[in-house]
Amino acid sequence: MPRVCPLTGKKTVAGRQYSKRGKAKYLGGVGVKTTSITKRTFRANIQRVRAVVDGQVVRINVSAKAIKMGLITKPARRNYKPAEAK
């Protein structure tokens, strides 16, 4: 299952993590030096939610940004009351 949002297109992207060492010049040091560069991945915040799609309630994987933007419509809450005990 790919970590891709069908609504916003957000997906996993590659990047780098920089490890640094030293004290900044403006703090009285000789400067910050890069000691290593490591590859890493930035993952999209994908959530599995129930949404109404074409009149049907289905579970889809969407990004948190799509939920916040209101791109999905959640199904109405059930008005369920249990039957009284006899």
Show the helix and strand layout.
Elements: E1 13-21, E2 33-42, E3 46-53, E4 56-63, H1 64-69
Antiparallel strand pairs: 1-2, 3-4
Key features of this structure:
86 residues; mainly beta; two-stranded antiparallel sheet; 41% strand
Explain this structure.
This protein is mainly beta and 86 residues long. It has 1 helix and 4 strands; from the N terminus they run ββββα. Strands 1-2 form a two-stranded antiparallel sheet. The chain has a two-stranded antiparallel ribbon with strand order 3-4. The longest helix is centred in the last third of the chain and has 6 residues, at 64-69. The radius of gyration is 23 Å and the shape is elongated.
Strand order of the largest sheet: 1-2
Class based on secondary structure composition and strand pairing: mainly beta
Which segments are poorly predicted (pLDDT under 50) over 5 or more consecutive residues?
none
Overall strand count: 4
- Number of discrete helical segments: 1
Q: What fraction of residues sit in β-strands?
A: 35-45%
**Helix fraction?**
under 10%
**Which overall shape is indicated by the principal axes computed on the Cα atoms?**
elongated
Computed CA radius of gyration, to the nearest angstrom: 23 Å
Distance between the termini: 48 Å
Order of helix and strand elements from N to C terminus? EEEEH
pLDDT averaged residue by residue: 93
Biggest beta-sheet profile: 2 strands, antiparallel
How is this structure best summarized?
By secondary structure, the protein is mainly β. The protein has one helix at residues 64-69, and strands at residues 13-21, 33-42, 46-53, 56-63. Strands 1-2 form a two-stranded antiparallel sheet. The chain has a two-stranded antiparallel sheet with strand order 3-4.
